[in-house]
Protein 1
Amino acid sequence: MTNLMHVDVPTPVRSRYGVAQAVRAECSKLRSLRSTTWTMAAVVAGSLLVTFLATNSIQRHGRGAFRGFDPTNQSLTGLALGSLAIGVLGVLAITGEYGSGTIRSSLAATPRRPLFLAGKAIVVGAISLVVGEVMTFACFFLGQGILSGHAPTATLGQSGVMEALLLSGAYLALLGLFGLGLGLIIRNTAGAMSAFVGLTFLLPVVLQPLNAHGNPARYTPEQILANSVAAVVHQPGQLSPTTGFLWMVFYCILVLVIGTMLLARRDA
Amino acid sequence: MISVKELTKHYGSTTAVNHLSFEVAPGVVTGFLGPNGSGKSTTMRMIMGLDMPASGTALVNGMPYTALPWPLREVGALLDAKAYHPARTAYDHLVFLAKSNDIPRARIDEVLDIVGLTEVAHKRAGKYSLGMGQRLGIATALLGDPGVLLFDEPINGLDPEGIRWVRYLLRDLAAEGRTVFVSSHLINEMSLTAEQLVVIGQGSLIAETSVREFAAQGTLEAVRVVTPMTDCFLAALDDVGAEARLEDDGSIVATGLSAAAIGELAADRILTVHELSPLRGSLEDAFMELTHDAVEFRTGSRS
């Protein structure tokens, strides 16, 4: 038709863009940023290192002190650091767009905002889930390897172990979505990261004095992971794995719903 | 086709855009003119569905931007500020946009070629100069081969060659039958590029007109006369009822008569003329006058 345009941009088969297009766009966004790779590398390295330290230190306890010892839980200590990195991934997935101005390009391309967010949540959730499961199993096998011969170990066949591992990996995906929701509400990288660290890691410390009064700290994200979801041996006074997991689902829905409402109303 | 009706936007107690209505037709370049801070970028963002209006509507091809089935295939925009991630390459920036609207990959290479970024397409956009960033923005706008294009201050940061290139690009796009809407605070630049004008000041419409009419509106047509016989000439002009004033440099500026009529008058009275030149109303004068009025009007209406 013109001197400027040579390549035909054929009319698509579909009548309009949808979630599939939003998901594909989000995938290439994440893939094309080095920060994604670095964050994921940090998850892997950090979690394994912490698990190594946590299981290695058990050796020095010697025999005898293993009543109630939960080798699965011990080997998943590293997930605390991994969950931080996954939260950061979720936060950056949206605040990186606001910080750079990419959000205007994104919303010009995908102006139906709930759909834009759905694409983001699907991609962040899926990547966090894969990384989370891989990390959980890697930590488990590393931890059991180090524990073996010095302390009781767990195997995948033992009752509750497989469930705890699968649930922990899925829990990490929830933390990624939680980070996304906080990033969506706060829009600023530093602010959203502070909120994530504050709510997951610092809040339980602040709530510690209330341990005798219903122990509210057990409802905080990091405590749910450490004491409920990643535990095979149920610890008294803590939430059950399922209850803990559902609380985290609730937190995710809460921040994502608030975030979606704000996204729909705010100027980009 | 862009159609804006009664569009209004507040930021706190400030009214950024005030009951603004205008239409932008296809086939010509329409300039969106106003001083800095007059609401041009805000209006463009509302057309793009990025900012929410307090009231009023902005329609593109008859529907709100957010309802477009394939937005990038219908509307392309170069937005005011940087709208790309500094750590992402130009190519990757275009890849995710192409995927979001099912645009074939071959088109990415083509728009990179059109804007001249092929060589640096795989460099991180954060390392780009202001001008290269503008070119990436223009590539983004052209990606979906859209029929409606919005450019917010496209020549910012471009060198003279780049400015010329943008001028031709805009005219070519309009000549292909596209709707081209370009904002600028530089009236002279607009006079070189645009045919139609939407002029705003303080968020309100000042004029919706053609560049030619807008210029004529600025000052009355006047004729400059340089003559050694100043007094006789002034008397002759007075005789025929023309307004005339003596300038500091000794020339006469006459209004109310055409240059041809003054030449004939000089021949009739046997007066020597060294120079006879019509003075066109300057666009800049018109612009300053009109926006100045808007400012005064707004101040007056508040008190």
Protein 2
Amino acid sequence: MHTGQVLAVQQSGEIPSEYLTFTLASESYGIDILKVQEIRGYDCVTRIANTPAFIKGVINLRGVIVPIVDLRIKFNVGEATYHEFTVVIIINVVGKVVGIVVDGVSDVVALPAQSIKPAPEFGAALDTRYITGLGTLNDEMLILVDIEKLIGSEELQIMDTTEKSQGEAAI
Amino acid sequence: MTSDGIDLRRFDQVFFEECAEHLAEMEQILISLGDREPDHEQLNAIFRAAHSIKGGAGIFGFDDMTLVTHVMESLLDLLRNNEIPFARGMIDLFLEAGDVISMQLAGHSEGKPVRQEAVDLVRGKLQQVIETGAGKGRRLPEGPAPEPSPAEKGCEEPPLPSRYRLTFTPDPEIFSRGIRVESIISELSGLALPGAFQCSAALLELPELEGFDPERCITKWQFTLDSPAGREQILDVFMFVADEEQLCIEELPKRHAMLVCLPDLAAPPAGSPPHQVEPDPPGRRAYDGNEMAPGAFGRRGGEAQSSIRVNVAKVDQLINQVGELLITQAMLAQLSVGLDPILHEALQKSLAQLERNTRDLQGSVMSIRLVPISIVFNRFPRMVRELAAKLGKMVELKTGGDSTELDRGLIEKIADPLSHLVRNALDHGLENPAARAARGKGPTGTLQLKASQVGGRIVIDVIDDGAGLNRDRILAKAQERGIACSDSMSDEEVWPLIFAPGFSTAEEVTDISGRGVGMDVVLKNVHSIGGRVQIASEPGRGARITISLPLTLAILEGLSVAVGAEKFIIPLNVIIESLQPRPDQLKSVNGRQVIQVRGDYLPILRLHQLFNLETEVLAPERGILVLVELDGDRAAIMVDALLDEQQVVVKSIETNYRKVEGSAGATILGDGRVALILDVTELFMMQKKI
């Protein structure tokens, strides 16, 4: 491709973004693939006392303690069962590594910017605040989630709102 | 060297660190002087520090810093050369200047505000000392007259000049190091007698035009000068510039005809006329000997620095990785337990070897983070000096065990509590000379700071020979503040009362201490790093406050316990004993169960209750009670079973999650699972809420 063409494409915003798609109950969701660190199975979760039910606990991810959030419980969709096929998406946002439990991971898709439509005010298990738009893929609707906003939200209680002893306990 | 140059910003951090070191060194020397006059060696050391700061600041473009250091350096230079008599106020002035430079440094490195008026004030003061003191010096006859100003040369009989021929073949990278050859030339010409300086340049190679890099120095210079200056003074011009092999100095026979050394090539006009009286620019100057170190001119080559600077993040990463290795090793060890020792003898031997190796490795890696406590102790001489002056007391500070090493993280956190204790000892503990005389003590009080390693802990003592703690006053104050106490309490019970929040027995609040925010903060800070504080005091004889700290925060000796399906780690340092209670030891107070152990009644903390865990062990007599004590609070933690005593690597939960109530962090067990480390203080608080 000539340089001129690349520029033209960039200007018209046609470089497609890639999304990792996953399912919660019957709905398909997509998150920015660049925010995803890895995908792994669900095991060896250590419970943490006095936390909401959707915080499943923490795991040892190669020496790093990572909290696990079950989005199915949080958003009241699907059945929160755990077996060998339960999938955890490890996400790296706002300087934190967090695992989210979903029903299943489907695919990585590329969506051009113009195929993303603004989200309506209602209609998904997720609050519209965390939805950046709706994408269409093979006649199927994909709900695009602003995972950074979701993880950073007070609702999930992952961040310390007081921001006090940051790093104090770190070695 | 690439054509796009180098970004000096990258080195800013190095400069900041070095500058801070130089400042600390300078301060240390100044403080050690007391009121004595510094000897030549000490003056030189201070001077070197100031000079290095100035040089660095100049290279990195922090011009505001060069201004102060320049004036300071000028004064020091005059002092060294006995052109200005030493006055006692100078030490304070230098200290003040050091503070201003620190402030400027903080301004550059952390963006802290810089009070320009303070900077100007210090500069003005320094300048004033230079002006008023100039000419009053006791000029000593011996020694080469260093850098006489042109005006002085006329009226004084100069030493017989020597003729030097210098061949300077600089390192090709010299420009990228920020060195300007012009300033060297003008400095050299300043050393030369009027009209007796010649300079010529020659190209070492003639590169192809395409390959020509203007930032590479391919020129070699030859200078010829008649100068009264000594050889060392000339060498010093090249301080930080040239290595020995790059500079060749020949002393030519005296009274040699001037025109012998004709330029090889069409040379630039021979130097600048040395008689031009210019304002002394804050740049390089020539300085006398002493800075000569073996190896390179002006470099600290003698005391071969056998250390390297490493980013703390890298060390932490290394520690983390060794922690990982430790966990992997523990996993392997666990997997091999079930194997038949006869069939797998070789494997088990290797695993044992692996265990030893990993422990050794861990020890070595942990020691990287250890730094000597002198880093903290060094800040006290000055504080004590200033406080003592303010309070009108005479105090001698003695430090011991300066080389005791502890974790860097601990060093940072122990500094504030220690300075609180030192302030307290000076303000409340030590008496003024009159009061001391009345008690038959010498007028000078002694304050001792001692550090030592005792077992797996570091012990720091703050000892003063002052009045000691006043039992009656503490009790009276405690009653006034509504703190539970009684006259029958033993001394050991009375002293800790001063740790209560808002407690202060100082009769008047000074700006040094007495606001009552001290001791409870000390205790809290020390606790936050796993330490303990003890007080011993004898009326009229003095007090001793002892802080004991763990060696490191990264590794913890713990007891792993099981509750239901979960495992927890209880730090070993809080555990007194573990026992399985007999039914007759269990009593009930207000519906809550307590256990009677040797006459004491301790509350029972049920972990499964605090952490909402499911377990089959609900009665204390079926489980195990772990008796813990922290800050005089005692309790029995009820668990299902004791598992193992082990060293665990402390991991932060907060890196990726929020603070978890009741835990001081987490660790990874041999099976790869995460276990929480219990924070006993928080457990006590959680229990109170139930």
Protein 3
Amino acid sequence: MIEVIRVGMADLKVACHPAILTTLGLGSCVGITLYDKKKKIIGMAHIMLPSSKIASANTNRAKFADTGIVDLLAEMISLGADRKEIVAKIAGGAQMFNFAGSNETLKIGARNAEASKLVLKELGISVLSEDTGGNHGRTIEISSEDGKLMVKTIGYGIKYL
Amino acid sequence: MANDIDINNINSFHLDVLREIGNIGAGNAATALAKMLNKKIDMKVPQIRVMKFSEVSDVLGGAETEVAGILLGVRGEINGNILFVLDLLSARILVNMLMGNPINKEIAFDSMECSALQEIGNILAGSYLSSLSNLTNLKIYADIPGLAIDMAGAILSVPAIEFGKSSDTALYIENEFTYGTDSVIGDFFLVPDEASYGRLLNALGVA
């Protein structure tokens, strides 16, 4: 029986093979997954906001793209992952509600996805694939077996990244 | 004097006041809904939920449950969001009651029915906020509603994100509306931002 580990909002987890990491009902938040193919080590972060710099409460580093992804990478490496082997896949960053004249908060999904990609780029981690944007929720699940990322939706089917 | 209320260390007296705010606001909203539908609408004692973000998505029977969410921004002297969440069957029943549709209709909503759901949200939020406004003497009004039919977790996370900047928890004032023999219609959430709690409590002279 493979252990399925749940990652909550503003949370991050890493695991060695065999394991599955999942996060349920991503909306504007972004799920970032890292995978070391050789060691079969997986990691997942569920961030809510792009940057810890604009926030007054930044003790929970997993809440933000900038600090969360850095910590996720550090935990992968401390589990024995080789930084050069690590690749990323990301999903989420939707705009759940549509309004005329949307305010800042409602565009947060796109900003979260942009910030996540920027942080990964700065860390030198390539993003193999992504499923971001749109206006629907997503459940994601990554397996340590092959690093495949399953993206489940309501009304938009299931796809594998 | 405006004291800041730390929602992580909220005391039981403040919780009682917030619960009463929920009671009065939702009482008016329930009355408005009852008039609109010409049906008796009941509500449960409001719940004040101070949740870690990791718990938010599980409030309504699982993060992946498909629900209809109507979201309105709250503006004026109180800022935040109002979110009315219905399971799909309840949303269908409500729309059918409102539009006089036959009872057996598919669950998918056409654009007219989506507008009807938004309008229900509008009326509920308007009556909730006007009673809150009368009570506190604060100017409070709602933006136009938005509708999403999707996973509960994804919908509930939207008001939580506004809290993310200033807090590691989110505070929801929740009311459950029921009709007939305890059939749940939906959950009505008032989610003021952190600064607005202090202002609400101050306006009522309790902070």
Protein 4
Amino acid sequence: MGFDQFIGNRKIVGRIRTKLKQERFPHGLMFAGPEGVGRRTFALMVAKALNCPLQGPEDFCGDCTHCRRIQSGTHPDVQTVTVEEEATQIKIVQIRQLLSTLEMKPLEGRNKVFIIDPANLLNQESSNALLKGLEEPPDNSFFMLMAVNVHELLLTIRSRCQIYHFAPLTLDEIRSQGITDEFAVRWSQGSIGRARSADIAAIKAQRELVLDFIEAAVNAKDETLRDMLSASADLSRTRQDFSGHLTMMAAVLGDILYLTEGTPDNVICADIRPRLERLASSAPAERWVRVSEFLRVMENSLKGHINRQMLTDAMALVTAEISDDNPVKSR
Amino acid sequence: MKYQVIARKFRPQVFEDVIGQKPIVQTLQNAIRMNRIGHAYLFSGPRGVGKTTTARLLAKGLNCIQGPTISPCNQCPSCLEIASGQCMDVLEIDAASNTGVDNIRELRENARYAPSRDRFKIFIVDEVHMLSTSAFNALLKILEEPPSHVAFIMATTERHKLPATILSRCQQFVFRSISAAEIQAHLRSIADREGVKIDDRSLSYVVRASEGSMRDAQSLLDQIISFSGQEVVDEDVRDVLGFIPSEILDQTVDALAGRDSRALLNNIGIVIDQGLNIQQYVREFIGRIRDILLMRLDLDEKVLGSIEEKKALKERSAQFSEQDLIRYFDMLLKLESDLRFTAQPRFHLEVGFIKLAKVGHVRDIEEVLSSMRDGKIAVLPPPVASVKPAAASPKPAAPPSFKDSLTKRLQDKSPTTFVYAQKAERIEQIGERVEIQMPNDLYFSALDTREHRAALESAATEVVGRPVSVSLMKGQASPPRPAAPSAARPPATPETNAAMDTARQEPLVKKFLEVFRGDLAQVKPVKGE
């Protein structure tokens, strides 16, 4: 075991290791980047290196009692603060609890490590409660904040951390992890977590649903439009599936644009290329851009409380306008 | 590990070291010198500009064994304990984690007792904006008339969250962002003291990325030092700050100039494969477009960079018209803010870039006119299909119709309602009522939901300026409407027709119509002729 096991983002690994080696380790770090590129794994690795008696602080062994307990989340000096069950945010009581242990010396290891994950779910009160502790923690205390999008965090929090942006992995790095299905590799978009957890059959079924919807909308005539609108109900049934559908829609529309703009190597759904090409050739790129832009409106509206079917209905209409000879458009 | 980050290690310990807040420091020093010390201070301002630092310095100045003094000794027990945060008489309270009224009651209780050793009992209340309403109110009386041995120093980044009753009881000091030159000079002195070699150009990158916050600047410098060691080279700095290599930006500009969406997509691919940050890419690209625009406007002196770089920019700027650049700039700014909050940044960046490549080039009107004057016939490139084919632009001169203003309002308020409202055959305001006629049953029933009606009603109310009701109608049952309001031009008579024909023969008018692909709408007799 050791840092060598970590896949991708070698630069960041190198920098953090230098810091560990030089004992210039900052007390506040933020790991930003997409889900599933290994930020959490890496934070735990750092926590191990800070506490492993055998190979620390430059590396860690992974086998000693410290490393093992850090891995299993039972080490008394490494705390992960996350959203409690049935809650949507990290609450101020959790931060107060953290702060109450901040002044204590490490119990068993050399350093105390606090991992806040995901930091963008700190609410207004809990972020502010963290500020003073995060700025000047006692010696031997370290914070690591995980965030997908740093813009969702308070400026005052960001300003107290050194921020590292994790990049998606390259397709080859994903392949090197034993992912054989080519669609899974491309679908992962550089997230090893996404590639591993992907239920390819389910995702392809979802893709089918989305493609049917888009095709129906593109080919809609006045008399079939009503059926299509009711079909959009299928897409919008549950909130959870819905954001998945939007992701899929982005992937499919992205692929169509890759085809219209002549960069077919980027296509994610390469296995159904002929079908995508038919769609791509049914309308000029500008129209597809317009549909794609509406997707952004949908994503945005979803943050508020909005009737999902209303959104897909509107999407259907926008898509239906796409081909010139469409009767809907001529109105 | 005894290592401390630069921001903590170099926290100013005397008033003279506070950077960029001269008026405030001077005022406080004078107050101490003249013994006119207030009992409640409020420090506000952006992150990392010295609020907490100044609060601690003020506390030291007041309680130093040689004080009250404008130059605390930093040697007496009071000064040392304040620096380490262990002083009995200077209580630094984290108002963000102790937000409740109970915490303030405790504070009030505490304030009644005389200081144990020092001159004053000082409460530094940091992040004070997070106190609850009742906590603020509990503070009011003691903040107005505290015992003579008590002083409050409050600090916050969000002054607007404080009640006016608190504000009016404090002496307020608004800290400003620190200027680039001041940050740069200070970083230089830190680098010297740390024995780090770094050139001015590299430092200027750090300064730019810090956006006026000293702590941000110091924390970036820290990252750079631990990355490169004692000798920092330019490349390392760009790398640590996640700057986009200049070649990629140049290639992107060239791709945009050639309206080559394929090359634009490839550039996005390169940025992602190199592990660079997409948002940073867009931000820097905006910066590059700005530089090119400035070059185009001959404002060379506003652009940073070496002579060669400026020359390259100047050459690139020749490929664009001013209008193009301004338009790109606007579109990119919107794209940048959209990207902040999307779960699909790559997709939306790609869509945004394709859109940039597809918008038609706008030719500089001066250019067209001058080529007309030269006798050359300038013909516009065929108009590129507008990105929004449905929103056929209304005749520029015509004032927006009621339908237009209503749908415009809807577009911002409820994008889905907007999609349907666009389909309406007729939207008219009749007194206190707005009639919306949909072309068929399908659209009628689609729009006839509670949500859509609510959106329509509130938008209509905003447009009209008083409460109105909305009635939806379906079918084409309504009698043919009288001539459209836009047909307000006078009826064609033989005279006007003749005038139109004459006008069409006029060479200048002819050329105008040809170049701008326009049409004659009306001919008016000039008054007095």
